[in-house]
């Protein structure tokens, strides 16, 4: 097998494409032949030693991937050799083969392409947990999605529409706003050229959004939160812009609003049955055509460093997927 090995987490340049012995699965594990692996923001942080999870060295990055089960470890009952699976295990995906915990493998229904499957769990599970579980979003409510043209942003638009909500998508270019409209957003805000608070006010008749989905953080968090509706829910999904914002807590009092943390990894560990039920609903929505990952492009696995550079340029719309 071959894999991108991180022996020193100083950044993307330290990754090397190496030939390694193909491992054998232990109890509760499976060997997966990787067909596709998506590139997510945590995959950049983890090779820079900036992510909250710091795997022992050396490790193979690639948190999310899809492929074919080639060997099954002892005690694994729900997966068979030859089965198609998607997995979000945190590491191991940027390779030709990887060992995956069987419990974290999602069996793929027939006709679910590997590229879509590799771009599925992280963004849709996060957005489903955020909007359906944590925000208790209801039909007819209004959702503001920040960073709406990215991976989680595009999934949030689709899930909010599947629930029956109105979606305002905020992104940094007219091209990204057009993409958001094409996948169901009811209105868009280009926050490079428009004043965010004024645009929100105009689009909600002064009421503000019931739910704000924020995977960006940084400078937009406070103006967005100041615009939230009475009893609004502000979803803290991530900090793609870098800085972690500080919000004046008196605003929660004045707005009767909630600041709600969204950490799908913790949810999946603490509440595995609820997480599995959410994934099953998402697979059903995919089969019904309600949700479909937006794929920016696919690239050969060996061009991973170029893919990281493209992601770093903030030019990605949807998901980047590496293929073997």
Tell me what the structure shows.
The structure is a single chain. The chain is α/β, with parallel strands linked by helices. It folds into 2 domains: 2-120 and 293-323, Quinone Oxidoreductase, Chain A, domain 1 (Alpha-Beta Complex); 123-265, NAD(P)-binding Rossmann-like Domain (Rossmann fold, 3-Layer(aba) Sandwich), CATH 3.40.50. 31% of the residues lie in helices and 24% in strands. It is built from 11 helices and 15 strands. It has helices spanning 41-47, 114-118, 121-134, 151-163, 174-182, 196-203, 221-226, 250-255, 264-270, 272-287, 304-312; strands spanning 2-5, 16-19, 29-39, 64-72, 84-88, 97-101, 105-107, 142-145, 166-171, 187-190, 211-214, 233-236, 258-261, 295-300, 319-323. Strands 3, 4, 5, 6, 7, 14 and 15 form a 7-stranded mixed β-sheet that branches. α3 packs across α4 and α3 (121-134) crosses α10 (272-287). The longest helix has 16 residues, at 272-287. The protein is globular, with a radius of gyration of 20 Å. The termini are close together. The model has no long low-confidence stretch (mean pLDDT 94). Pfam families: ADH_N (PF08240), ADH_zinc_N (PF00107). Keywords: Oxidoreductase. Residues 11-322 form the Enoyl reductase (ER) domain. Its EC number is 1.-.-.-. This is NADPH:quinone oxidoreductase family protein.
């Amino acid at each position: 097998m071959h894999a991108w090995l991180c022996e020193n987490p100083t950044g993307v340049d330290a990754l090397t494409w190496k030939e390694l012995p193909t491992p054998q699965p232990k109890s509760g594990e499976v060997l997966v032949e990787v067909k596709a692996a998506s590139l997510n923001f945590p995959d950049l942080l983890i090779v820079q030693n900036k992510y909250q999870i710091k795997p022992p060295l050396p490790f193979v990055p690639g948190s999310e991937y899809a492929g074919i089960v080639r060997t099954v470890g002892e005690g694994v009952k729900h997966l068979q050799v030859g089965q198609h699976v998607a997995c979000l295990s945190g590491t191991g995906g940027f390779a030709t083969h990887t060992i995956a915990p069987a419990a974290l493998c999602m069996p793929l229904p027939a006709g679910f392409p590997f590229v879509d499957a590799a771009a599925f769990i992280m963004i849709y599970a996060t957005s489903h947990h955020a909007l359906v579980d944590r925000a208790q979003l209801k039909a007819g409510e209004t959702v503001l999605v920040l960073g709406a043209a990215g991976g989680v942003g595009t999934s949030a638009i689709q899930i909010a529409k599947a629930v029956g909500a109105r979606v305002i998508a905020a992104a940094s270019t007219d091209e990204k706003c057009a993409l958001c409209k094409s996948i169901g957003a009811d209105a868009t805000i280009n926050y490079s050229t428009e004043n965010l608070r004024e645009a929100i006010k105009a689009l909600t008749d002064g009421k503000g959004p019931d739910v704000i989905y924020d995977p960006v953080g940084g400078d937009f968090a406070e103006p967005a939160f100041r615009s939230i509706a009475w009893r609004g829910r502000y979803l803290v999904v991530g900090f793609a812009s870098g800085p972690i914002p500080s919000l004046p807590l008196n605003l929660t009092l004045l707005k009767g609003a909630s600041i709600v943390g969204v950490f799908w990894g913790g949810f999946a560990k603490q509440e595995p049955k609820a997480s599995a039920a959410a994934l099953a609903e998402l697979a059903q929505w995919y089969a019904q055509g309600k949700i479909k990952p937006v794929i920016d492009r696919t690239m050969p696995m060996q061009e991973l460093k170029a893919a990281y550079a493209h992601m770093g340029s903030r030019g990605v719309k949807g998901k980047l997927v590496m293929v073997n």
